[in-house]
Inverse folding.
């Protein structure tokens, strides 16, 4: 299964996120920043868990829940869901993107591509 979504800073699309299930036990999140868009932003503080100064084409997190996904998860008890990647039959990434609740700690939000 593959799910693709995007991170927006206010209304600007700054990064694509791809979640891929490799098999029953292995998965990965792939972050692909759009540096041309990011470079034009003022007061942008980055994306949790990614060192954007490295200017990597892709940041890959295998078999771990990225801090950005963890922080933007709107579920009330994140500890319980720390190792889960599906909610009500959809991937956690899609669940976050479709949720009406938004993380209050920054101006970033996730939407489906």
């Amino acid at each position: 299964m593959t799910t693709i979504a995007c991170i927006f800073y206010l209304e600007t699309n700054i990064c694509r996120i791809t979640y891929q299930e490799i098999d029953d036990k292995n998965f990965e999140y792939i972050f692909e920043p759009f540096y041309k868009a990011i470079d034009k932003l003022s007061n942008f503080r980055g994306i949790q868990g990614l060192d954007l100064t490295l200017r990597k084409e892709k940041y890959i997190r295998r078999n771990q829940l990225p801090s950005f996904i963890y922080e933007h998860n709107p579920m009330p008890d994140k500890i319980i869901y720390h190792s889960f990647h599906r909610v009500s039959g959809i991937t956690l990434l899609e669940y976050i993107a479709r949720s009406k609740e938004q993380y209050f700690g920054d101006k970033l939000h996730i939407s489906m591509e």
